[in-house]
Write a structure and sequence with these properties.
This protein is α/β, with parallel strands linked by helices. It has a domain of 132 residues: Rossmann fold. 37% of the residues lie in helices and 23% in strands. It is built from 11 helices and 10 strands. The strands form 2 sheets. Strands 6-7-8-3-9-10 form a 6-stranded mixed sheet, with helices on both faces. A 4-stranded antiparallel sheet has the order 2-1-4-5, with helices on one face. β4 and β5 form a beta hairpin. The mean pLDDT is 90. The structure holds adenosine-5'-triphosphate (ATP) and magnesium ion. Adenosine-5'-triphosphate binds next to β2 and α2.
Amino acid sequence: MTETQLNSEPYFEARNLVTSLGDQLIFNDLDLQVQQGESVVIMGRSGEGKSVLLRHLLGLMKPDSGKVFIRGTDITNFEDIELMPFRKKMGILFQDGALFDFLTVADNVTFPLAEEGVEDTDDLRDRAREALKMVGLEEHMDELPMNLSGGMRKRVALARATITYPDCILCDEPTAGLDPVAAADINLLIREMVDAYNATAIVVTHDISSMNQIADRVVMLKNGKIDFSGTPEAINNSADPSIKNFILGRSEHSKGEKV
Ligand SMILES: Nc1ncnc2c1ncn2[C@@H]1O[C@H](COP(=O)(O)OP(=O)(O)OP(=O)(O)O)[C@@H](O)[C@H]1O
Ligand SMILES: [Mg+2]
């Protein structure tokens, strides 16, 4: 992140978010700022609201009270159509970000361009090749997703999320279910994209090595608020017992002995 970016307005800001779903209070006066060019990893126990938070930042879900800003614009009450220009600049990889089984890898990857109205098949093919090269899957462009491994499918989804040269990427659990090497490949790709395009990134993950590889800053969601915000180094060295248990993958009922 450069000095100028640090001084400009945040890419995302959630201010005093309060959201209940059913009888559950998900956000309890939550505040979060993500600066332009910053790579933020969101961590927290399952069910704390990480995916719901991403949906709020995208305007896909609305808070009961509080506000969401994207680059200074209050989008809290925006309809889908008003959100489109903002979302167009973002690459989004949802938690269960499925590919279309009936489309080839190349057609999956260029789907957002086709939606934008790009029709020239040679253009689309060139863009697919370029994006797939970045994730090392150029050779597989004419295959169907079901013939690829889980890790390869995640890489295709990442290529699709970045085909429009987004200035921001949001990924929900991009490495879940992958072996450590495949996961490291995905982490590296996300970091490379952030560095190559100077993009803003928000990545939700439970995976500590992903956090270490991707994050400029880690935020921990707990009890409806940001419970911790700091560098990966700071969280790795935290003395807070519940953060330590999280980082070490230790039961909350453990007495602190080595597992
Ligand atoms: N559309 C919805 N309607 C009602 N409840 C919901 C909805 N979406 C999420 N929830 C609830 O909100 C809580 C937070 O869900 P969320 O998916 O954000 O958790 P998470 O932190 O992403 O968990 P995980 O790590 O398992 O992905 C959960 O209790 C979930 O059941
Ligand atoms: Mg989730």
